[in-house]
Design a protein that fits this description.
Helices cover 52% and strands 11% of the residues. By secondary structure, the chain is an alpha+beta fold. The protein has a five-stranded mixed β-sheet.
């Protein structure tokens, strides 16, 4: 079995279609706007900017922590696959499970979106090669071109919506049964663990195939 085939086998075992969840369960598509587990809130949270191709034909959600060494390791592989594909929309969802510094970093990065610097802030911290503390976080953001003072002011002004976005991400990760970072949603599949660039490309293909199959089935029943 080729390396790619082995990756696909892992994906086939680990993924689960969101459609398998009942409406009252982990992916309630018909729930109210306040429910963090609706399809829109999972794939298109209004408080989390999209990376990759914002108009992509599939959406990838990553639940991560800036202090997670596996998240740092996997990031260049995901980025390489996304850039090579060109049609993938990416949502990076902070799930700060490594303590106070992780939460500090997550809140500031979300605050950076108010100066249209969310992606730059994310890249600065997820590619960090050293251990993070609050001073290091501020230094990395400043060197990435983030107006740190403005970010802190924006955080203070928008703390309620920023904390709500983090709470939604946490609730979603737990509802999907994830036990740590990195964990992923590939359009309508979930996956927890490590992948290389080829594994991500295979996952993109699986996500598109599943989408096309669902569309074809829906069309045939009309």
């Amino acid at each position: 079995m080729s390396p790619v085939s082995r990756i696909l086998s892992r994906i086939a075992v680990s993924f689960m279609l969101f459609a398998a969840f009942p409406a009252s369960g982990a992916f309630a598509q018909a729930a109210g706007d306040g429910d963090p587990l609706t399809r829109e809130r999972v794939l298109r949270d209004p408080d989390i900017p999209a990376a990759g191709n914002p108009n992509g034909d599939i959406t990838i959600v990553e639940f991560f922590d800036y202090q997670c060494p596996y998240c740092r390791t996997i990031h260049p592989e995901l980025k390489k696959a996304v850039e090579a594909d060109g049609k993938v929309r990416v949502i990076y969802k902070n799930w700060p499970i490594f303590g106070g510094v992780s939460t500090f970093a997550a809140r500031l990065v979300l605050a950076a979106k108010y100066q249209n610097k969310y992606t730059e802030a994310h890249e600065a911290l997820i590619t960090a090669s050293t251990k993070l503390d609050e001073l290091r976080v501020l230094d990395l953001l400043e060197h990435a071109g983030i107006d740190v003072k403005r970010a802190q002011n924006d955080l203070e002004k928008n703390a309620k919506s920023i904390d709500a976005a983090l709470a939604r991400s946490r609730d979603q990760a737990l509802a999907f049964g994830f036990q740590g970072t990195p964990s992923f949603i590939f359009n309508t599949f979930r996956y927890a663990g490590m992948l290389d660039a080829e594994g991500f490309k295979a996952a993109f293909t699986d996500a598109r195939n599943a989408r096309d199959k669902t569309r074809k089935k829906a069309s045939s029943t009309k």
